[in-house]
Amino acid sequence: MLKPEQPLYVYELKGGVPPPFLNLEGLLGVWPEADYTYLFFTAPADATLQLFFREHPEFKLTRHYQLPYGHWQQLAAREPLVIDRFKIITREQSVQLLPDEILLRIDPGVIFGSGLHPTTRGCLRALSLLYSTVNPAKVLDLGTGTGVLAIAAAKLGAQQVEAVDLNPMAISTAAANCERNGVTNKVHLIMGDARENLPEAELLCVNIHFDFLKEFLDDRAFCRYRWAVIGGFLREKLPMVRELLPSCAMVKEPELEEKGWVTLILEMSKL
Ligand SMILES: C[S@@+](CC[C@H](N)C(=O)[O-])C[C@H]1O[C@@H](n2cnc3c(N)ncnc32)[C@H](O)[C@@H]1O
Fold this sequence. Notes:
Elements: E1 7-14, E2 27-33, E3 36-41, H1 46-55, E4 60-68, H2 69-72, E5 81-83, E6 86-89, E7 102-105, H3 118-131, E8 138-142, H4 148-156, E9 160-165, H5 168-180, E10 187-191, E11 203-207, H6 210-218, E12 227-234, H7 238-244, E13 249-258, E14 261-268
Parallel strand pairs: 6-7, 8-9, 8-11, 9-10, 11-12
Antiparallel strand pairs: 1-3, 1-4, 2-3, 5-6, 12-14, 13-14
Helix pairs in contact: 3-4
The structure holds S-adenosylmethionine.
């Protein structure tokens, strides 16, 4: 677990496809994003990168900057972070659990999904609410990030969770978090685009940005699922989301809102 004051050295490269394994000194991880690749280091890596550029002349350094880890990843000021039935800790500490509470041990590294963001909170509340009345055994978590929702679903009672993310660094972070929570036997991680990875499931969970959701909701493949938890959009987009919902989908009450971000629980009627 990185300390909030630990400096992060971020190098932005353009022009190539990062090799699947990069053995560079001090490298925390690789984050490909559209035409760019971001490399995260815990110490200045200029010399290391000069060697890398000699072997990979297709990459060009476009920017580099330094910031404290605590600025990149906001963590709860006080832990455990309590969200409905969940208690989330990001550092090793002993925690007292009430009989119905569920502990999530999440080391987010530099990946989205520490539990602090309102969209994650909304999805966790939705999962907890849904599992209080039904018990979906198979779950598909699109845009898993740290794996927080996949792990939560597994701990709520899902037998099998498929968790997809296109960022390889999210997949390795989620893998470590699954191990930390003892759910590696239940959660299967898939690196790839969510649009091309839609395994069968009873419950679909999507917390990806609005542009993805807009396109995805339009896809009638949605109706294959029995329930869905969808988040990642602000209240102002809610009318558009409701309009785009496939006809099989019924919004279940309550609509959840956290700091202007909405999460919906959907129940799909059989086609
Ligand atoms: C908002 S974060 C959600 C993380 C976590 N599920 C949570 O609720 O905190 C969205 C995640 O979706 C991933 N992502 C974005 N577009 C994607 C796509 N087309 N296919 C798969 N994953 C995608 C990002 O890499 C990121 O990890």
